[in-house]
Specification:
Low-confidence stretches: 1-8, 39-44
CATH topology of the largest domain: Rossmann fold
Strand content: 5-15%
Largest sheet: 6 strands, parallel
CATH architecture of the largest domain: 3-Layer(aba) Sandwich
Radius of gyration: 22 Å
CATH superfamily of the largest domain: Glycogen Phosphorylase B
CATH class of the largest domain: Alpha Beta
Shape: globular
Order of helices and strands: EEHEHEHHEHEHEHEHEHEHEHEHHH
Strand order of the largest sheet: 9-8-7-10-11-12
Number of strands: 12
Length: 381
């Protein structure tokens, strides 16, 4: 762990066509040759092909993991869910504790946005999740809703820790200069909102395009929306924007993370948008980066994300079924710069207080160390 100073292992790694070794930010990384591209990126990969890739990755990860020497603990983070199988089996192989991080509830997250409807696959994924949960010595959930879902699957609450995504307080900062990004994107003096991230089915960005159309109809020419990222829905979104002749929507990216910080700095508010779902347990990285940047967040996700922005006065909750809510919120904030700036300050305060990467990394470190200590005590006993 680079944040805690814990030393990374220096075990030898087999050199072969299935694996590649490198270093990222001082961390030794072994990549598995199981290339995966979401079908929405234009690869045409169907559901069966995706599942086979998930299994291939898990199988190869387990194989190479066995060659690395005995670890103190196995920490597996999903998605995909199949990586939990590799983690579970490696922990059993080495007789060490297994800690599993849940970044999405499968199959619930897929079902809730309409991405999965096959009842047999739903049943199969649910059984797989329950098997992995039962094998884990401890589970990390990224949101309160995820923790509730894991408890519902039969896991005792004391075996679960809620550790959300963190804010990159150094990279995203209110002092970043966004003037060059504003100029490059042609934003002028307009009030600018930005969505940055994936443009896939689950993101439901048609909601944003419709809000832009409403703003155009109402003559709100002083407002512009930036959509920065990539995904299978981007081409369709661009086509709809052209059909509507929307000059208040600007597409950009994909760009580097450093470039994203400048674009975010050049905008006034950030958008966290998802397709309407029955149960919303997400913990989106980009929302916490927006907090760090000191930007108000407009979010159409109920549950704890709504509570975050409302209880800390750092954003506005939007009805996910009503794009007009987004249009009205943007129009309101565009005429109230004082409130907008105060919300931004509140967002940064929240990021520093609750979502510091160093603080949350320390919490995770304690979880891992406690798992090792408990395992050692059990073996001695």
């Amino acid at each position: 762990m680079i944040t805690s100073g814990l030393k990374n292992s220096e075990f030898p790694v087999p050199q072969g066509k299935d694996y590649a070794e490198g270093e990222v930010d001082g961390i030794r990384v072994i990549s598995i040759a199981a290339a995966y591209n979401d079908p929405e990126e234009g690869t045409g990969m169907n559901g069966l092909q995706r599942m086979l890739k998930f299994y291939q990755f898990a199988r190869l990860a387990r194989r190479v993991g066995k060659t690395l020497g005995r670890p103190d603990v196995v920490f597996a983070t999903h998605t995909p869910l199949t990586i939990g199988l590799a983690g579970m089996k490696l922990a059993r192989h080495f007789n060490v504790p297994f800690v599993f991080e849940v970044r999405d509830l499968w199959p619930e997250a897929l079902v809730n946005v309409g991405a999965l409807k096959n009842t047999l696959v739903i049943w199969w994924l649910r059984r797989m999740a329950e098997k992995i949960y039962a094998a884990a010595d401890h589970i990390v959930a990224l949101s309160p809703g995820m923790k509730t879902g894991i408890i519902r699957a039969g896991v005792p609450a004391q075996r679960i820790s809620m550790i959300p995504n963190s804010s990159d307080l150094d990279l995203f900062h209110p002092d970043v200069d966004g003037s060059s990004a504003r100029q490059r994107l042609g934003l002028g003096e307009r009030f600018a909102a930005i969505y940055f991230g994936a443009m896939g089915f689950a993101n439901g960005l048609e909601y944003v395009i419709e809000a832009a159309r409403i703003l155009k109809e109402r003559g709100k020419d002083n407002i512009v929306i930036v959509l920065c990222g990539s995904g299978g829905r981007r081409a369709g979104l661009e086509g709809t924007a052209r059909d509507y002749q929307l000059k208040n929507v600007v597409f950009d990216g994909p760009v580097t993370k450093n470039e994203v910080t400048q674009i975010v700095a050049g905008c006034d508010v950030c958008l966290t948008i998802f397709r309407a779902a029955a149960e919303q347990t997400w913990s989106p990285n980009k929302m916490f980066d927006a907090f760090a940047a000191g930007k108000p967040v407009l979010v159409n996700v109920s549950g704890w994300l709504r509570e975050l922005v409302e209880q800390n006065d750092c954003g506005i909750y939007l009805d996910p079924s009503c794009p007009e809510a987004l249009a009205e919120a943007l129009a309101e904030l565009a005429t109230d710069p004082v409130r907008c700036r105060q919300m931004g300050r509140n967002a940064r305060d929240l990021a520093e207080r609750e979502f510091s990467r160093e603080k949350l990394a320390a919490v995770l470190e304690k979880v891992l160390l406690r798992a090792v200590e408990d395992s050692s005590a059990k073996n001695i006993g």
